[in-house]
Structures are given as structure tokens and as C-alpha cells.
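How a chain folds remains the central question behind the approach discussed here. For one protein, we set the task of working out the C-alpha cells from the amino acid sequence alone. The sequence in question and its C-alpha cells are set out directly beneath this paragraph.

_____
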Amino acid sequence: MPSKRGRYCSLSSCRAGDNVLVHCSAGASRSRVVAATALALYNEVGLETAFDQVANRRNTADPREAVIRQAARIYTRHLE
């Protein structure tokens, strides 16, 4: 889990229009889900739209279903 400072810097970079690197050891599941969830919440778009946008940039990623369900719960919680 990144430090609070790391999360803050990443969000600040998103707001500034800079690129942000999201990394996990394999880069095929968690990274894509975290990036898509953040993108959906930040841009106020649907989670599926955000997943499509991330997939267009990294089409080899194949997130696990359990991680996608967790992202959907987080996304829904933030919309309430």
C-alpha cells in the first residue's frame, strides 16, 4: 500500500494532466483495476468505460474477476 504522500502525489498528477504509473508485480490484474477505478471516479465515467480506456492502452492486461468485483464495490461506495 503506498504512503498517504504517494497517493496524494498521484492524485495531484492526475489533476495536473500528468502521466501516472500504477504498478504491481505482474501488471496484469491489480494495476489495470486500480487505474480504471481511479479513472472512472476522477472523470466521472462508468467503470466499464474506464476499463475499456485502460484496455486500449494495455491490452495484455487480464484482471481477475474477484478484483473487478472489489473495484465495483469501491466505485459504487464512492458514488453514494
User: Anything to note?
Assistant: Residues 1-9 have pLDDT under 50 and may be disordered.
